[in-house]
Write a structure and sequence with these properties.
By secondary structure, the protein is α+β, with helices and mostly antiparallel strands. The chain has two helices and three strands.
Length: 80
């Protein structure tokens, strides 16, 4: 993290794939995803990936992300 670090809350999405792996992503950071054989491993991995992704972001982008007040996830039924 940056030298004057602070904690921010980020949303993550966890899904269990057909092979039994947990796939985790942070939708606010491009390319920020990983997996693990267990949920704990996947969560540990995404924490590390988020830190790497944030190291690549500008202070302005991090500030914009930190100022998000609400983030929600919804499902929508569609016919296929």
């Amino acid at each position: 993290m940056k030298s004057n670090s602070k904690k921010i809350n980020l949303p993550i999405i966890v899904e269990k794939d057909e092979d039994g792996f947990y796939v985790v992503e942070c939708p606010l950071l491009r390319g920020c995803y990983t997996q693990g054989e267990t949920l704990d491993e996947a969560l540990t991995n995404i924490h590390e990936v988020i830190e790497m992704c944030l190291d690549d972001e500008t202070e302005d982008v991090i500030s914009d992300i930190a100022n998000i007040q609400e983030f929600s996830f919804h499902t929508l039924a569609v016919e296929v």
